[in-house]
Amino acid sequence: MSNSIIEVKNLGKKYNITHQQGGYVALRDVLTNVFKNPFQFAKHKAKQITGQETKEEFWALKDINFTIEKGEAIGIIGANGAGKSTLLKILTGITPPTTGEAIMRGKVASLLEVGTGFHPELSGRENIFLNGAILGMTKKEINDKFNDIVKFSGVEKFLDTPIKYYSSGMSVRLAFSVAAHLEPDILIIDEVLAVGDADFQKKCLGKMDEITKKEKRTILFVSHNMGAVTQLCKRCILLNKGQISLINKTSEVVNYYINNLDTFYNSSSIDELTNRKGTGKIKIIDYSLHNNSGEIITFLVCGQNIEIWLKYKIFNEGVSEFDVSLTIDDQITQNRLAFLSNLIIKKKLKVNDQHLIKIKINNLPFNIGKYQFTIFLSIRDEITDWIQNAGLFSVNYGNFYKTGKLPPLNEQGNYLLDYDFSDD
Fold first, then answer.
1. Cα–Cα dist 277/387, whole Å
2. CA dist 330 to 31, 132, 230, 339, 373, Å?
3. Are 331 and 413 in contact (CB under 8 A)?
4. How far apart (Å, rounded) are the C-alpha atoms in residues 315 and 291?
5. 296 or 271, which is more confident?
6. Beta bridge partners of 238
7. Spatial CA neighbour of 284 closest among 371, 383, 171
8. Of the candidates 142, 141, 146, which has an alpha carbon nearest to the alpha carbon of residue 156?
9. Are the CB atoms for 17 and 54 separated by under 8 Å?
10. What distance in Å separates the CA atoms of residue 49 and residue 409, rounded to the nearest whole number?
């Protein structure tokens, strides 16, 4: 008898995208046409409604088949728009499939977005019991786990505060702790752990490893952090444009993905990306790389002075200031550099007429290789736009140390430090 806990058969998800034809029409022209010939106007509008809309089929997922055994930790990777989040939403029952089926044998807990599963008006304490009840646990069973949940999350002081007042990091810590300790048969985790600090991420990976190896529960883990996926998962699924490109040992899948990153990377502009998180009060709509003279560049070298320009758009009139974080990941070692506005300047960034942010990086400290960056915009610790792996760039040979030499790749990470030796 099969020990499979998840079976996905011929799974597909189709969306119909409507394209409205026609352009702007002035109000005076509408009124003139109505009064001149109301019947003709009505006929024209009916045609416009029924005949001038075109629908395009978009398959976010197609022909997805895989089986997961009890106690496995499975990684799911792929570029933005590959279908990862759509797959998880189907597996958790949030979105129904168009074709096929997903058979889940057991209780499922998920952590897909910041605040998922929490009622904002309820306190942290109340939400713990609410989530336990949803999983079918008795009050006694929840009480037995309660202290462990609170201790792991580190939110003891705010336990009786409504969740809506929690920071993003606090919400994620409590949500993960609840999901991990209430003993679901299947735990599904999206990229939300990236919101937490490095120590908490390490703590979460340790807990997930314990869940699979000691408690024989199953984990589906979606992440852009190849190091974390490799550490936790023995098998991995690579998605590309809604289809499975490869299922195999994690090391083989990750290496294949990294070596072919240019092929898998979604070339859509940032403005078109839909798999972003945040309130949307302010969003990044474009980015570009520049030299010190402001000229756009596409060829980067080690030690070069560059500027990353971020173009943003305001969707809430009340926004006047905000913070920006840019993290850059080396795709081989998964080492990360962070550029944080609140560390460099004392005040918040102000909204300007150009709606433009310039991040200046002197003496580009990257060895030869490929790098991806993630963008966070926040207002008073509230994430307004979070785009994981928003951009990709390559760095070529440059004379960083003025000696013509560079350290071997992957020996201690691919970042370069400006240092010196002296025998004085």
1. 7
2. 59, 39, 15, 14, 9
3. no
4. 30
5. 296
6. 77, 246
7. 383
8. 146
9. no
10. 59
Residue pair 414/396 in contact (Cβ under 8 Å)? The answer is no
Tens of pLDDT, residue by residue over 47-106, are 555 555 566 788 999 999 999 999 999 999 998 788 998 999 999 998 999 999 999 999
| CB-CB contact of 334 with 226 (8 Å) | yes
Strands 282-290 and 306-314: antiparallel
Residue carrying the six token digits 């840019």: 326
Check pLDDT > 50 for residue 1: no
Task: Name 9's Cβ contacts closer than 8 Å, sequence gap at least 6.
Answer: 65, 100, 101, 102, 103
Q: Could you tell me the two tokens for 201?
A: 């991420």
What distance, in Å, lies between the first and last C-alpha atoms of the chain? 74
Question: In this predicted structure, what is the pLDDT of residue 221?
Answer: 93
Tokens for 387? 């785009």
Q: What is residue 267's DSSP assignment?
A: -
Long-range contacts of 379-383 (CB under 8 A, 24+ apart): 379/281, 379/282, 379/319, 379/321, 379/322, 379/323, 381/167, 381/168, 381/169, 382/168, 382/279, 383/114, 383/168, 383/195, 383/277, 383/278, 383/279
Alpha-carbon span 327 to 308, nearest angstrom: 12
Query: Which comes out higher in pLDDT, residue 101 or 409?
Result: 101
What are the tens digits of pLDDT across the range 359-405?
Answer: 999 999 998 888 888 999 999 888 899 988 888 888 888 888 888 88
Which range (151-155, 211-215, 332-336) has the least confidence?
332-336
Split at pLDDT 50, 70, 90, the class of 148 is very high
Write down how long the chain is: 424
- Radius of gyration, CA atoms only, the chain: 25
* d(C-alpha 108, C-alpha 335), whole Å: 32
Residue 198 identity: A
DSSP state of 366: B
Average pLDDT over the chain reads 84
Directed axis angle between helix 168-181 and helix 139-153, to 10°?
140
* DSSP assignment of 44-74: HHHHHHHHSEEEEEEEEEEEEEEEEETT-EE
Q: What is d(CA 188, CA 218) in angstroms, rounded to the nearest whole number? A: 8
**In angstroms, rounded to a whole number, what is the distance separating the alpha carbons of residues 121 and 51?**
46
- Could you give the CA distance from residue 327 to residue 339 in angstroms, rounded to a whole number? 6
